[in-house]
Amino acid sequence: MKALVFQGPGQTAWQDVPDPAIKDAADAIVRVDAVTICGTDLHIVKGDVPEVTPGRILGHEAVGTVVEIGGDVHTVRPGDRVLISCISSCGRCSYCRESRYGQCRGGGGWVLGHTIDGAQAEYVRVPFADLSVHLLPSAVESHDAVLLADIFPTSYEVGVLNGKVRPGDTVVVVGAGPIGLAAIATARLYSPGRIIAVDLAESRLAAARAFGADATAGATEQPEQLVADLTDGLGADVVIEAVGVPEAFEMCTRMVRPGGRVANIGVHGKPATLHLEDLWIKDVTITTGLVDTSSTPMLLRMMAAGRLPGGELVTHRFELGQMEEAYDVFSRAGDTGALKVVLGGPQHDVVASAAGHETDGA
């Protein structure tokens, strides 16, 4: 099959690799129908995630069709259309028993495209398939569903829930890329008083306004002063960092009010300075986190009901074999206006079987 292979910092190739095979009875082999590129993938290519070694197939966000299952898989069968979660769960360790799947110690967690081969390929092996894939209803198209593999649960759990967004809050989202936009969309579920988006690119600020931001500011246009002006000098109740660079994190800690919360989502490849000389007295809570995807079933129901934006986040579509072109477009988002790029994703025709599963229609 063909797959995108990491070959070292700054180097990838769409090349021939062996087909995946069942290695454990809990595995499923899934044909990739739609896959996307994550900002974390760009960090990997830059060399910011040293655990990813040359030869690794990248990618952890995909929708596909099950083609083979191991003997211990009971919730899906060949022919099922499924969402592949970015997080795998053994279901047995102490973290999984607390629904903290991102910290799984039984061989799961973030493994796809990280410590095992990922989903930017024609086929992918998914471990712990019973807990790591979700059957898709016919009402949800692949191009929409793929956004539930990572960005929506990540922004919701690591940003909105960790930040404890409440009705009436002033929420600042620093970084209006896909994660930031999903944070805006899911923060609105809690009726904050206002949402302020900060980004360098005007195209992304425009997208932030379309997704529900009440005010926007360019990162070079004194966003801290805007936040101060809108809060009578107090600062924001919740600040969500969705970039992953030191300057963004440090800006967040300057914009939060005493007693407020900073929720860091961004993947950081360099140290950031924590100014405790200013923060120690302010009762500020700072959270970090890797998504657990425990919210995915709920978010999937919301998307099926039309309560979450889907395709509006997808700005560019490619054939699966155009992986290198898609990476180029996504990595130059400031020039191309790219938000989320999706590869593959043919239209599906499904019917419900008597057992409640869905199968490809004739």
Verbal overview:
- The radius of gyration is 20 Å and the shape is globular.
- Helix 10 links the parallel strand 12 and strand 13.
- The protein is an alpha/beta fold and 362 residues long.
- It contains 13 helices and 17 strands.
- The strands form 4 sheets. Strands 3, 4, 5, 6, 7, 14 and 15 form a 7-stranded mixed sheet that branches.
- Helix 5 packs across helix 6.
Class of secondary structure makeup:
alpha/beta
Biggest sheet record? 7 strands, mixed
Report the β-strand fraction as a percent range. 15-25%
CATH architecture of the largest domain: Alpha-Beta Complex
Q: How many individual helices? A: 13
- Compressed to H and E, one letter per element, the order equals EEEHEEHEHEHHEHEHEHEHEHEHEHHEEE
What is the CATH first-level class name of the largest domain? Answer: Alpha Beta
